[in-house]
Specification:
By secondary structure, the protein is mainly α. Helices cover about 100% and strands about 0% of the residues. It contains one helix and no strands. The chain is rod-shaped, with a radius of gyration of 38 Å. About 0% of the residues are buried. Keywords: Coiled coil, Membrane, Transmembrane, Transmembrane helix.
Length: about 90
Amino acid sequence: MGYTFIFLLGWIIGLVTGLVEKVNSKIKENEKRKDIIKANYHEYSELAKERQKLYEENEFLKDDVQIRDERINELEKELYALKKAASKS
């Protein structure tokens, strides 16, 4: 009876130890995954900021091009008017 109890106690301790090791292994694995997720999120955040900055620069350049196009049209009209006036004189 005594040996059976000791055997069962040892078996239970071994089983619990194995379960604890599995749980600890899963905890370490989850910590690694969490660190990877944090790194990926940080990288995503930086890329999103960079994308927003590029979008804003692009919008500024579009506005700048539109303003320059309008100015070119004005100058072309002035040139046409001057050529027309010069041809009449």
